[in-house]
Amino acid sequence: MAVPNKGRLNERAVELLAKSGIELGEDWGRRLRVAAEGQGLEILFVRAQDIPAFVSSGAIDFGITGEDMVAESGRGLEKVMDMGFGHCRLSLAAPEDSGIASLADVPDGARIATSFPRVTEGFLRAAGKRAEIIEVSGAAEIMPYLGVSDLISDLVATGSTLKTNRLAEVCKIMDSQAAMFASREALARKGAEIADVADSIRSVMAAEDKKYLMADVPADRLGDVQRILPGIGGPTVLRIAGNDGMVAVHAVVASRDMYRAVNDLKKIGARGILSVSIDRLVE
Ligand code: AMP
Asked: Domain containing 136: what range?
């Protein structure tokens, strides 16, 4: 499995693997290769840009990288799952005072600096635009200022980098986020193992914004409990030894609903309300 060794996608990818129980060890940051023996997995820390080529060539079976990287590589990889982080978009941008506000304003023959030449060229061709692509390996934002290009095509997340460089977004070329990709061959040979890793990560992601709520409630208020805690398949109801008037209810609750749920439970006479974090949720 390939994992970005640094940059924006590294931290969250490593966090999700660790939470999924994939043993990276303490010193993974200094190593290019970690054998997660318990899971029968070999993790290779490589540059996010290189992952599409390694996966496509069969050197590595699957990996996490940006959708933008896969698109730019031109390799036909299969997406196993969206990872829900690293959201950004590849956009065309022009100097704020250029008068270029939309794709229609981009003049024929415009010079566009980008580290995404393939995706940018494909987009412009499909839009019927002729442009000169100037490939740069980074810092595209400075190119119009230097007179190297008229526009840029670059990744935008919050838009603050564009603003700092007095550039304005002209149009979006593609949305991107981190995703897990595999080659068709790897899926044919090791599809079940790859799906196990993906499922494990999914279960961690599903649990992250939820809590497990437990409370003792008057038995005759169970109807209200079902209204307060719709949960996944409704709350679990358990008898409390030596107390026939009360029952224990357990439910998975979205973290954002906890404040309301606890207050509503208190109003119907609930006691001993407990909330705990969940490591995993497999529905
Ligand atoms: P922002 O200022 O938040 O719009 O971020 C833009 C800068 O961060 C550009 O230099 C991008 O190349 C880089 N960037 C933003 N999002 C990502 C991402 N998901 N992956 C890699 N680079 C990104």
From this structure: 88-175
